Structure formats: structure tokens, C-alpha cells
Amino acid sequence: MSESGITLHAHLPLAWAATASFPQPLIAEWMHGNLVCLQALAALESHDREIDASATGEHAAGRLEAKVDLLLQLVGELMRKQQPAPPRVEVILGADEVIWDAATPIAAGSEGVLTLFLSPRLHWPLTFPVHVTGVQGTKVHAKLIHLSEDAQEWLERTLFRYHRRALHSRPR
Q1: Are strands 97-101 and 139-144 parallel, antiparallel or unpaired?
Q2: CA-CA to 133 of 20 to 30 Å: which in 25, 48, 63, 172?
Q3: Which residues are bridge partners to 97 per DSSP?
Q4: Strand runs (DSSP E) across 60-167, as ranges?
Q5: What is the DSSP letter of 142?
Q6: Which runs of consecutive H residues, i.e. helices, occur in the chain?
Q7: Whole-prediction pTM
Q8: What does the radius of gyration of the chain's CA atoms come to, in whole angstroms?
Q9: 3 state DSSP class of 163
Q10: Is residue 100 predicted with pLDDT exceeding 90?
């Protein structure tokens, strides 16, 4: 699937919209949004580990971070009410490809925009232009296209972080 072989298997809110073209300003906007989302998610998850790992003298900083986290959750809830997430589907996300279970038929060779939400804590979608490389039953295989270098790097970091977390959570 991806060059590194690291993928995220999950049920995620996902939406598909076919499109004939990807205007450069729109791609730049999507990639910037993806970058901000992935960096924010990393910061939130890093903050969670710091709170879990240390109950030391940095209590004031932890309280401030908790307040920021609460604010983000409240803003996320407000966003969810204004724009509900799409239905959850089975997704396999790699650094360069995505496979999902489509509710409606999608033709191989078509292009479109895939929107998915990685975290219920951060109601901010990742938006990927994709090229559908194949369809097997209801499973759609698509290549991620037009990713910026930064968005690609942060997607790889995120997938690695999720992979590492999954390995640590396995029973030994």
C-alpha cells in the first residue's frame, strides 16, 4: 500500500465528491488545512501524554493546557452542530493511498475529493484530492494526489504515531 507499509485501519467519518479538476489555489488551501489539522492533532496527543506521564511541579502549565484543550473541544462541538460529520466507514489510510468502503458506486479512473476526520476530538477534516485506481466490490482504492511536501510529511508522522500507539496497546 504505502512505501513504509504503515497504515491506519479505522472507522472514520468520510465523504467523497467527484470532481473534474483541482484548481491550484484550492489545492493549496486544502494542503494548508491538512497541515494545520495534523499538527494540531499531534499537539493535542502530545499534551495528553504529558499530563498522563507527569504530575510534577508543572501543574500550572498543565492546567493552562487543559483549559486550551477544553476550549478546542467546545469549538469542535460547535462546529459539529453547524456541520455534522459524514457517516463513518471502514478506512485504510496510508501515506500515499486510501481504501474505503463506498456506499455508492465509484468508477475506477475517476478523480475527486476525499474528506475524512481522523479524531473525534478535533472536528477538522483532512481533505485529499484522489485518483481512483481500482474498485473491488464496495472497496475503493485511490491514490492521494497533489499532496504538498509538508502535508505528506505530517501525514507520515501521524500514521507512524498511530501505528506506534497501536503496537503499545497490544496485549503482551
Answers
A1: antiparallel
A2: 25
A3: 143
A4: 88-93, 97-101, 111-116, 126-136, 139-144
A5: E
A6: 24-53, 59-82, 149-169
A7: 0.80
A8: 17
A9: helix
A10: yes
pLDDT digits (tens, 9 = 90+) for 126-139: 999 999 999 999 99
Residue for cell digits 504515531? 161
Task: Write down the residue that cell numbers 463506498 correspond to.
Answer: 102
CA dist 34 and 30 (Å) reads 6
CB-based contact 91:2 (threshold 8 Å): no
Collect all residues with Cβ–Cβ distance below 8 Å to 159 and sequence separation of at least 6: 2, 4, 6, 7, 8, 93, 94, 95
Helix (H, G, I), strand (E, B) or coil at 15: strand
Provide the residue count of the chain.
Answer: 172
In angstroms, the CA 42 to CA 137 distance is: 35
